[in-house]
Amino acid sequence: MSVLEKFGVEIFTQHNIFERISVDKPFRPDNPAFIFVKTGSIKLKQHFRDLELSANMFMVTDPQTVYEMISISDDFQSRMVSYKREFISALSLKFNRLITYRYFRQQMNIGVPFEPDELEVVWKSVNFLKYILDSETEMTYKKEIVEHLFSVFCYQMAGIISKEDSNSMSQMSRQEEIVFIFLNDLAQHHTHERSVEFYAQRQSITTRHLSAVVKDITGKSASQIISLIVMNEAKVLLNSSNKPVSEISGILGFSDPYSFSHFFKKHLGESPSQYRNQFEN
């Protein structure tokens, strides 16, 4: 049984983080995680933008998002706190979960800056939690100790996040909210719905209005983002499973393998099989 399965949380450093983050191909995290950068930088591609995390920054990764690592600096020093979603919901935390959850969702693909002294305190908490998790000493209440230390970590993050929230991000604009809901809907429905009309109807707005708002906020059209998300999903399925192309086309909601291959080649310039062959050597 893995540490994550046994205790609900697992911590990785820059030495083993790439057991969870693929270096040379798109990947989707199995579980949500906080990634902290103490020194150096890492550059990731996610959704429709590149994201660079540098010193004294953190981000929240999400299993609904496909990421691709672009580059990493030689002096990269990091901690990744990966946790099972049901574990955090089981903790009896007394802060306002709705505000924190909204903030996490809103900011999960954006690097958030820390004050260096804030990061130092969180870094020490994470290292101590890792020390307990890694310890081979018999502990009668190890699971309870882990839960309480993780709770401490969550309180620390909630405090930092709520301060950041009240400082500059207390409310999303109506346009940002439309894009936010669109991306959440897309994460849930992209395997069977690829029309802009469907996502506009979900919010009771016109297709024209949704397209204009998405373009204004992201720089890309709604249809471009839908295609990007479907392509990211296709890449992950092609390079992380042995499923035949015909099965993958069905999973992604295409009527037949030819339609899927045509879509894939239109957006990447090569067939699904040609793309998959890159990773088989």
TrEMBL record:
Gene3D superfamilies in alphabetical order: Homeodomain-like
Alphabetized PROSITE patterns for the sequence: HTH_ARAC_FAMILY_2
Transcription regulation is among the record's keywords: yes
Keyword Transcription regulation: yes
Keywords from the named record: DNA-binding, Transcription, Transcription regulation
Molecular function GO terms recorded: DNA-binding transcription factor activity; sequence-specific DNA binding
Protein's recorded name: AraC family transcriptional regulator
